[in-house]
Structure formats: C-alpha cells, structure tokens
Amino acid sequence: MEPGPINISIIRRLNARHKAVLLLLCKGLRNSEIADQLRLSPRTVKWYVSQLLLIYDASNRTELAGMAAQEVAMDDSQLLTPPPRTGQLHRALAESFRRHLYY
Q: Which residues, including other chains, have CB under 8 Å from residue 60's CB and lie 6 or more apart?
C-alpha cells in the first residue's frame, strides 16, 4: 500500500508533550520506558500514542515513526525536541512527582 502525501505541518501543530512522546517512540522506546523518561504513567503514554496514531492516521507505532521521520526529513527545520521547560512547568512537574511518590 502506497503511503499518502505527508502533511509537513503536523509536527508544528503538536504540543510539547506530544512531541516528546513522539521523539521517544521514534527512538524505539516502549510505553513503559517513555513513561519513565517523561515521568508519566504508562496509561497516559498509551493515550498520547493513541492520539498520535489518530493525528497521523497511522495503523501502528512503526508506521507512525516512519511517517514522523519522513515528515522531519522533508522539513528539517522541524525538530522533534520539546522546548526547554519553564520554571513554572518544572515546579508543577516536580510537585506532581512528589505527590506520586508520597501518596
């Protein structure tokens, strides 16, 4: 089956969390590994992956990674790296992590 045309603006429309999950997925990490890296629950990562599959209209993770890689190759100005964390976001993530550890 021939892949359809790639919309090179998909990555531009993704938020930072979607980009982070997509980057790690493209590196071949499993949901549990992505969850560990991003300090999310595996269920949350599964939700993000499901959303990315819908956004890209991909059938599976391999196809999704290939489509994302092709998109970046066509428009190399679009890096899959999330923007640096702001202090406020970092504090919110740290607080969430502390609550997760102690409750």
A: 53
Structural domains of the chain, ranges and CATH numbers in brackets: 10-102 (1.10.10.10)
Mind listing the pLDDT tens digit for each residue in 53-102?
A: 999 999 999 999 888 887 776 655 544 444 444 555 555 555 555 555 54
Residue with tokens 């890096």: 79
Give 46-55 pLDDT, tens digit per residue.
999 999 999 9
What whole-number distance in Å separates Cα of residue 1 and Cα of residue 62?
Answer: 15
Q: What is the pTM of this model?
A: 0.65
Query: Do 39 and 93 touch, CB atoms closer than 8 A?
Result: yes
For 41-57, the three-class secondary structure string (H helix, E strand, C coil) is CHHHHHHHHHHHHHHHC
Cα 70 to Cα 8: distance, rounded to the nearest angstrom = 9
DSSP summary character for residue 94: H
